[in-house]
Request: fold
Amino acid sequence: MLVGGLGEEALLRKLRDIFASSEPNVRVGIGDDAAILGCPAGKEAVWSTDLTLEGIHFERQWQTPQQLGRKCLAVNLSDIAAMGATPSFALLSIACPTDTEVDFILELARGFAGLAADESVAVVGGDTTASAGGIALSVTVGGYIDDGAALLRSGAMVGDSILVTGKLGSAAAGMQLIQEGEGEAYPDLTAAFLEPSARIGAGLAAVKVGATSMTDISDGLASDLRHICEESGVGAMIEPASLPFSPHLDEAVIRFGWNRESIMLSGGEDYELLFTLTGSIAEQVKEVIAHESGQQVTIIGEIMEHEYGVRLVDRDGSGRDIPRHGYEHFQSSY
Amino acid sequence: MLVGGLGEEALLRKLRDIFASSEPNVRVGIGDDAAILGCPAGKEAVWSTDLTLEGIHFERQWQTPQQLGRKCLAVNLSDIAAMGATPSFALLSIACPTDTEVDFILELARGFAGLAADESVAVVGGDTTASAGGIALSVTVGGYIDDGAALLRSGAMVGDSILVTGKLGSAAAGMQLIQEGEGEAYPDLTAAFLEPSARIGAGLAAVKVGATSMTDISDGLASDLRHICEESGVGAMIEPASLPFSPHLDEAVIRFGWNRESIMLSGGEDYELLFTLTGSIAEQVKEVIAHESGQQVTIIGEIMEHEYGVRLVDRDGSGRDIPRHGYEHFQSSY
Reply:
């Protein structure tokens, strides 16, 4: 059955069933004009929103609808993780052509609901509407953090070490493989693009050990590191040889003739966390974060004075500026 | 200049300037991974989200970009008003083709920021991205209300009076006029569609006087009244002659051969409030709400037993069921 034949009210009833959940802070969930959420004492609320559009962020044949539903939530959870906060609520708006199969939308919703359940996030609202173009998904996520504890982009200090979770460039390589019809070649790279995870545990651990600034890598390391440098008024030195990558990225780079460094610096959608820590404790503390979150954590460089700029410096001491832009949606400069 | 030439980072900087505001509950606004918002003691948070799409909800030539920016916020504020809450925060995501004029987006943002300032709402986040289709706007609004004070759809009791703010059918008639190239004929009808106001003051007043249930009329009275009846497990009797309308609606109906009752019952986008009150106090209390909010308030019917159904009953006692559906985005049954 097609969405246009089912109608908005019937679709909303089905979505309401899929998103049914009980969460102590949800006083009223889906089904009224707005959701009503409790405000725990001593906490601040953290909110973020992102659009996921067919033809820009995904093509329908790239993934299953469940993967799409999980991913559009994961990329929003990543923004909450990047503050060091715990996500609690999500709102999902779905626009689709009237000739979309109802099952496609319900599977998408099930993927969204599945990840929400995995992360104890309640789906409390949204909107459905016909679209004159392709599918458009808008997700808003809210969560809580102790008063004053959030990790901003603006807290990095000269001498801090720069760290990342996980591996860089896998998602960008995975997207490239899918676009070239080679999605089966390296399943871990493809999965990094189609099934990213928000590093919520690592974000919480970074708060606990006293990280000084944090962001998530959504537009590529080059671009997101610049955000921290601009907001903190500092420069940065990155050691290219220290950047963590999957052995399959290395294989794919050779096989397809790509530039590995460019993919790792400017490829978007890693959704790893990039954060800074007082240099003297970085080595010990990174093990604590890795242990608590189950994620690989790597020291990739150091925060420098503003005048230094944002530079790559090889072990032999030769340096160069980090390319200015990561992935820009409007310029598609990747 | 076109959006594609300016780039996402530069556009975000311009938007950040337009949305600059200071609001005591905003700890971190636009510019980090997520916004950080204070949680006042003794309050609950109220959140809602809506999509506004080119080709579905608007055509670009129908209105100025400023009107479009104001409207996409107003329809969301209406959902907060419908809970009886005070809106405090908004997030605006904008997707547009890369060949969109930057000035169009900035004017849209100025319209959004203007209404936000009028209503003391801080714009704390959002997203920008290219779109493969037309313009898509996703707005999320949050606000606060005293613990337990929100007016749900589920509180209507048999014997309650049914009330509405303002006039019905003007916005639907205004949309029809614009679509037929007659937008100049009745400026108040056109304005009702292009420049709706959220009835925030009336919503707050309804809480104060002890209203029992409330919703906003976004899909048409027939559909939104049914929401209250379904959630409250009751029926309703509406007196057609009591429904408030603009004298220009009457003129337009005659001139264009429309069915006035159908427009008032099933035309969407009025964004008036529909609420219920203990019958014995309705007459006095409606004057209090009208006085406090500056809005016309009209008693249009009575809550009945569930078995009664949802019916229109003329003064001569003849009755009929209210049409099942209002405006449905997927079925376009209007």
